[in-house]
Amino acid sequence: MSLIRLTGVSKAYPPPAKGADPVIAVDDVSLSVEAGEVCGVVGYSGAGKSTVLRLVNALESPTAGTVEIDGVDITRLRERELRTLRSDIGMIFQQFNLFDSRTVAGNVAYPLEVAGHPRAEIAARVDELLRFVGLADKARSYPEQLSGGQKQRVGIARALATSPRILLADEATSALDPDTTQEVLTLLKRVNQELGITILVITHEMDVIRTLADRVVVMENGRIIESGEVFDVLSTP
Ligand code: ADP
Ligand code: ADP
Predict the structure, then answer these.
(1) Shortest-distance Cα residue to atom 25 of ligand 2
(2) Could you tell me the superkingdom of the organism this chain comes from (predicted)?
């Protein structure tokens, strides 16, 4: 069974103005991602990539089709089950989305505090995560004291805090310079290979796909226009 499966998924937003047509952000998309895989979604701005991610973590519900995580249709979940689902899915962002008023440790601790874990357990887990991302010495620093690459490593540690099976990456390296991008991609590779976490990464950078992904789907105007092994798709003229 696929870990992530979208079947005939469409998402329409209401017309932006009276008399205008609805915006079809995602149009009849079917996509499955196996456990342990890194799947890339590429396409120009407006292609529907972010909407696909928001459908996978149930921030949006589809207007048609089904979204299943591990065989469970997530469009039918109640609030409590949704919380469980979200702790199974970590997310990282282009602009990192860290809390500026919290320390590095405080940022990583946040999802565990929300989930109500005991203090001592949180401290040990934060420690472990910061060592994993190579920021053990920055626990007491604030985001503004960090470089972009360090901020994204905090973002990754925070996304992993609840031990999710899935990591969603939304243009996670697009704000970084090429060297820092490679460093973050190396860390994401470890997240996949050492922790066995399934990664769905959306990007407009082909290098990200080449370095990280096993499989890639290409989106245009809300539809998947091509998909397959990275080597095959990217070598097609
Ligand atoms: P991408 O991530 O590939 O840039 P998006 O999924 O963000 O694409 O957007 C796909 C289309 O849906 C775009 O035309 C965008 O303007 C539209 N869209 C995205 N989110 C919303 C929203 N909340 N309300 C209305 N239209 C939206
Ligand atoms: P805030 O930024 O919200 O003030 P703190 O820095 O006080 O947050 O820490 C928030 C959480 O992170 C605490 O629950 C604590 O257990 C954990 N924590 C704080 N410092 C460390 C550290 N050096 N190593 C590991 N965990 C830490």
Answers:
(1) 127
(2) Bacteria
Q: Is the CB of 15 under 6 A from ligand 1?
A: no
Cα-to-centroid distance, 67 and ligand 1 (Å): 18
- Give Cα separations from 57 to 27, 166, 217 (angstroms): 18, 10, 18
The answer to whether residues 92 and 167 touch, using CB atoms and an 8 Å cutoff, is yes
> What is the full DSSP assignment across 38-70?
EEEEE--TTSSHHHHHHHHTTSS--SEEEEEET
Average pLDDT over residues 173-193: 96
The finding on whether 43 has its CB within 6 A of some atom of ligand 1 is yes
**Mean pLDDT, rounded, for 155-183:** 96
- 0.85 surpassed by complex ipTM: no
Place of tokens 């989930």: 115
Q: Provide DSSP, 141-174.
A: --GGGS-HHHHHHHHHHHHHTT--SEEEEESTTT
pTM given for the model: 0.90
Q: What string of DSSP letters covers 198-219? A: EEEEEES-HHHHHHH-SEEEEE
Amino acid at position 100, single letter: D
* Residue owning the nearest CA to atom 27 of ligand 1: 13
